[in-house]
Specification:
about 290 residues; mainly beta; 17-stranded antiparallel sheet; globular
């Protein structure tokens, strides 16, 4: 088993803006507010992906060292269980209170609690629930509950997981709050036959994400049918896929992640994507916090 997510890949690549700088004056402002909302969506998606990576890495660490506590390096990871062969199990990941810089460039503090309800991550039907206690990433407080269920193989024989974020909330250093929820299906479409090689893994993600901007603008993102987000772990960015965006009182909007620099109809590993609003197209780039 291995970590099947890449932090920056799900950091859906949109530049950040501040909702408060926009004054509601005319229809053009609705479009500006939409761009702001997409920036804050990017921030929320990035932070919850960073938390997801931390959670799954902890589960893998314990599964490979089932002695109770892993203290060889920070963070401290502890498991509570009746015995190795029984469930549920609770894993506690403690980053301390000073801030711990990870190899992914994220400074974390606080605790993750990961409940393995009935089986390990890779087992069909397994349920993994992550909750947070005073948990921060890059001085942003993260709240919410993440649930991952191994839903088995699809009709093509590919392993799938459902991923849900409920009650997601990001408190930024300015005291503003971004709300975020997610209901997606993650499909492992390539690399499952080489479990020790991460770089050849490829995934698709389909489903919906919703949120509320710091000034109250609400949005919904849905992957377009037959255009799921495609993640190759050899690339730090989404390779392709389309997200249809719903925001009240704005023109039709969508994000297209396919970038073809060489005009060969092959998706490039690029931080750029195209945000389409009505008849206009805007280049957008990645941001993490």
């Amino acid at each position: 088993m291995k970590v099947k997510l890449l932090l920056s890949a799900i950091a859906l690549t949109i530049g950040l803006y501040n909702c408060d700088i926009i004054e509601k004056t005319d229809d053009a402002t609705n479009t500006a507010e939409a761009i702001v909302a997409m920036g804050e969506y990017s921030q929320a998606a990035w932070h919850f992906q960073a938390m997801s990576v931390a959670s799954e890495e902890a589960v893998l660490s314990i599964e490979n060292m089932p002695t109770g506590t892993l203290k060889s390096k920070s963070p401290e990871i502890n498991i509570e269980q009746e015995s190795w062969g029984t469930f549920p199990k609770t894993i506690t990941v403690d980053y301390g209170t000073s801030g711990l810089l990870g190899l992914d460039g994220v400074t974390r503090k606080g605790k993750l609690y990961i409940e393995l309800q009935n089986a390990w991550y890779g087992v069909l039907g397994s349920v993994q629930i992550t909750t947070l206690e005073d948990y921060y990433q890059n001085n942003h407080k993260i709240e919410g509950v993440r649930t991952v269920v191994n839903t088995g193989k699809n009709n093509s024989g590919k392993i799938t997981h459902s991923v849900k974020i409920e009650g997601g909330k990001i408190n930024n250093p300015a005291g503003q709050i971004i709300l975020y929820t997610q209901e997606t299906i993650r499909t492992w479409i390539k690399g499952d036959d080489t479990p020790l090689i991460i770089e050849d893994d490829v995934y698709t993600i389909s489903g919906k994400q919703e949120g509320t901007c710091t000034n109250g603008v609400k949005y919904r993102m849905d992957t377009r049918n037959n255009y799921p987000l495609v993640l190759e772990l050899s690339c730090a960015y989404i390779k392709s896929g389309i997200l249809d965006i719903t925001i009240a009182n704005t023109p039709a909007m969508y994000i297209d992640y396919f970038t073809d620099v060489n005009d060969d109809n092959v998706a490039e590993c690029s931080p750029e994507a195209n945000l389409h609003i009505g008849n206009n197209t805007y280049k957008i780039g990645s941001s993490e916090n």
